[in-house]
Amino acid sequence: MSTLPTRRLALPATTLLAALLLSACSDDGSGSVHVAAPAPTGTTATQCAALQAALPQALQGKQRRTVSPASANAAAWGNPAITLRCGVAEPGVMDPTSPSYDPLSTKSHALDVNGLCWVSEDTKGGGYRFTTVKQQAYVEVDVPGAYHGQESPLPAFTGPVLRTDPADESRRFDCS
């Protein structure tokens, strides 16, 4: 499997804080992690299953963990767990009917990571949630606050997402 080149991003300070994450944990992260997996259907379910098979076994030195309940739509690495969920709903910051709607990007930031567009939001405990916004299936990555200030895991997901989840040409979003 070839890897995509990683390029350094010149990001505004607020986005840089969201994009930098810890690269190692002291705990090996063995054991099951509870992840509320979505239940997509049709094409989205097929794309999520393909993504699951393409995900790395290790993420920046953190081993993949089992998720509970078992699902083809969720994955986890490390302790505390970085989690991925495939087939989630449109991010609230993009949905005009959501209380989280953020049309002026005051609570969220767009990131282009090697050609894959993500929107980032702060989460409780100083963590971050990153969600793809131009692909056919929304893929969400939650990174706990314990990883604040170090390398981002997003480049490791770029290749698998781009190979298994084509862009939806109807989704217009400025990721610059």
What keywords describe this structure?
alpha+beta; 176 residues; single chain; 18% helix; eight-stranded antiparallel sheet; 3 helices; two-stranded parallel sheet; 10 strands
Structural summary, described in words:
- With 176 residues, the chain is of the alpha+beta class.
- It contains three helices and ten strands.
- It has helices at residues 13-19, 42-54, 154-164; strands at residues 33-34, 58-59, 62-65, 67-68, 74-77, 82-88, 108-113, 116-122, 128-132, 138-143.
- It is globular.
- Give the CA-CA distance, first to last residue: 29 Å
Beta-strand proportion:
25-35%
The chain-level mean pLDDT equals: 83
Q: In which range does the helix fraction lie?
A: 10-25%
Would you spell out the secondary-structure blueprint of this structure?
Blueprint: H1 13-19, E1 33-34, H2 42-54, E2 58-59, E3 62-65, E4 67-68, E5 74-77, E6 82-88, E7 108-113, E8 116-122, E9 128-132, E10 138-143, H3 154-164
Parallel strand pairs: 1-4
Antiparallel strand pairs: 2-3, 3-5, 5-6, 6-10, 7-8, 8-9, 9-10
Helix pairs in contact: 2-3
